[in-house]
């Protein structure tokens, strides 16, 4: 009887696959990434290594000694106190306690202070509280503590913000008006991020995490890159982490450019140079998980994309690893068998500098 | 200007999303003696094929494809009455498309885009809107029994997608399944789902939807 190995589907369902089936899915996922991104395939040795990682008998695996990488946490302060809506575990605690637990108990190498709404815009009315909390956290912690939030340009559109919703405008075929609305929103988003970080830097923040750049499309990335550029000018020593929302920059506007490059349609290896040009210190590439495909397919695809991004990037790459990204199944609390295997593959094959 | 130059101009107005230019070029082509069918098949459709391919290759994006569709629509407003004259009042053309978003779902950007693309490709349209109960769909299809009809349903969510199965079975129960082609789309819809529920087709995106619809209506 052929040996079968325990894997998961992209939605987390337990499945069993033979080695031949695993290899076939790995190659198919790899080919998908190579085709979409016009990037090289993995080598035969790298495919073999992926097979080894996937078929290891241990429930949890780890990187080889000497290959350990820094682990950076987003939203971490809220992960303890927040409920499932915030990817949290619902244990009543302050944000200081959450941050210190990550530093002293969980081994986080950098940490982030984030607001429960976790976007820059809603941090504006509570900026005094954010500043005070940052100061207190800095007084109690050693690891670099950043301020982090999502650019989330959607909050600038009606009904949440002042500019007419491009979705509504596009439905009415008011394309020019939709684009103008995105451009106005981008200006305000850039301005708000810079203002918030001026306050947080005055409170001792070590830097900033842009979490999920491009969630609202190319306008979101346009605003974020300009905010990075402005912050680098104002604070030459600020540590800037630029994490993406998805693998492909969606062309909601379609014609926005940064440094002469059209933002729409960029894959991770094409995003990396622009993030460096804007002035970030770390690039956080993302590859999305397909819930209808196996973990082998997703991992083959994700490692292919991220390896190309690492090679193209002049910055250290800290790959996004979590629910629904980086070859990890889309579960609110991802399973350790999938997380540890995907992480090991990213470090040992894609060559990421951190997670 | 030669006929080929005229057709190239029509094609280019679609590819460059030149809405006013497309209408002007269409009128110019008609005035020069070209038929509406020639203008659509050899000029405008070629442009839509190019823009559809570019969209699939992530070289152009939602705003651009919507503007191309709008340019095509501007041309079709001029061409539809001419087509009726050329083909005769009884000719159904490529057919009637009944489009809607499944009950429980109000996401309509994709639905509107597909509707526009179908219209731009010569379908007559009945747009039933969003959150449409299956009873209303069956009632609408029954009105057009015996004609060339395609039902084009959209669902963005897995929960609303499940209603598509009931749509097919209710049409079958009413004896209408064989008189209508059925296409479903939306993020969760897959080929496997289409096969499971007994629909006819799905498509990757709006441009592909128009191509698939024309194909299954042949």
TrEMBL record, chain B:
B12-binding N-terminal domain sequence ranges: 1-91
The domain of life for this entry's organism is Archaea
* One Pfam family per UniProt: B12-binding
Q: Which GO terms describe its molecular function?
A: cobalamin binding; cobalt ion binding; methionine synthase activity
Q: Which UniProt keywords apply?
A: Cobalt, Metal-binding, Methanogenesis, Repeat
Indicate yes or no for the key word Metal-binding: yes
Q: Write out the GO biological process terms.
A: homocysteine metabolic process; methanogenesis; tetrahydrofolate metabolic process
Which ranges carry the B12-binding domain? 94-218
An example Gene Ontology CC term for this record: cytosol
Does the keyword section mention Cytoplasm?
Answer: no
Sequence similarity: Belongs to the methylamine corrinoid protein family.
This protein is called what?
A: Monomethylamine corrinoid protein
State the organism named in the record: Methanolobus profundi
């Amino acid at each position: 009887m052929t040996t079968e190995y325990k894997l998961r589907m992209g939605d987390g369902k337990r499945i069993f696959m033979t080695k031949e089936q695993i290899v076939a899915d790995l190659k198919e996922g790899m080919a998908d990434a190579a085709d979409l991104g016009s990037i090289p395939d993995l080598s035969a040795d790298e495919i073999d290594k992926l097979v080894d990682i996937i078929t290891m008998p241990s429930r949890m695996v780890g990187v080889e000694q000497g290959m350990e990488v820094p682990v950076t946490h987003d939203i971490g302060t809220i992960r303890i106190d927040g409920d499932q809506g915030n990817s949290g575990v619902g244990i009543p605690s302050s944000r200081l306690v959450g941050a210190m637990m990550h530093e002293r108990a969980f081994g986080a190498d950098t940490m982030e202070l984030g607001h429960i709404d976790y976007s820059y815009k809603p941090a504006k009315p509570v900026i005094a509280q954010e500043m005070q909390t940052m100061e207190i956290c800095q007084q109690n912690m050693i690891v670099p503590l950043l301020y982090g939030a999502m650019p989330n340009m959607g909050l600038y559109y009606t009904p949440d913000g002042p500019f007419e919703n491009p979705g509504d405008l596009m439905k009415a075929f008011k394309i020019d008006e939709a684009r103008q609305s995105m451009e106005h929103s981008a200006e305000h988003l850039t301005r708000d991020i810079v203002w918030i970080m001026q306050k947080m830097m005055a409170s001792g923040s070590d830097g900033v995490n842009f979490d999920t750049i491009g969630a609202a499309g190319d306008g979101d990335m346009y605003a974020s890159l300009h905010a990075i550029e402005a912050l680098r000018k104002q604070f030459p020593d600020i540590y800037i982490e630029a994490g993406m929302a998805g693998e492909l920059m969606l062309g909601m506007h379609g014609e926005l450019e940064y440094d002469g490059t059209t933002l729409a349609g960029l894959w991770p290896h094409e995003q990396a140079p622009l993030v460096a040009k804007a002035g970030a210190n770390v690039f956080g590439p993302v590859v999305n998980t397909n819930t209808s495909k196996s973990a082998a397919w997703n991992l083959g695809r994700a490692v292919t994309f991220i390896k190309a991004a690492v090679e193209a990037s002049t910055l250290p790459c800290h790959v996004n690893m979590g629910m629904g990204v980086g070859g990890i199944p889309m579960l609110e609390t991802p399973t350790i068998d999938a997380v540890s295997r995907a992480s090991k593959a990213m470090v040992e094959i894609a060559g990421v500098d951190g997670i | 200007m030669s006929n080929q130059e005229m057709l190239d101009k029509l094609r280019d107005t679609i590819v460059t999303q030149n809405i006013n230019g497309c209408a002007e070029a269409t009128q110019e082509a008609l005035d020069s003696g070209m038929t509406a069918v020639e203008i659509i098949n050899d000029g405008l459709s070629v442009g839509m094929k190019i823009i559809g391919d570019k969209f699939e290759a992530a070289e152009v994006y939602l705003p651009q494809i919507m503007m191309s569709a709008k340019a095509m629509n501007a041309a079709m407003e001029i061409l539809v009455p001419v087509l009726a004259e050329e083909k005769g009042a009884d000719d159904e053309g490529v057919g009637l498309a009944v489009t809607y978003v499944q009950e429980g779902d109000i996401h309509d950007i994709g639905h509107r885009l597909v509707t526009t693309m179908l219209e731009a490709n010569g379908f007559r349209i009945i747009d039933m809107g969003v959150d449409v109960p299956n009873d209303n769909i069956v009632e609408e299809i029954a009105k057009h029994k015996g004609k060339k009809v395609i039902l084009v349903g959209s669902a963005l969510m897995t929960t609303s997608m499940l209603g598509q199965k009931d749509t097919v079975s209710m049409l079958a129960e009413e004896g209408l399944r064989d008189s209508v082609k059925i296409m479903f789309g939306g993020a969760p819809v897959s080929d496997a789902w289409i096969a499971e529920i007994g629909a006819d087709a799905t498509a990757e995106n709006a441009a592909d939807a128009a191509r698939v619809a024309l194909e299954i209506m042949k």
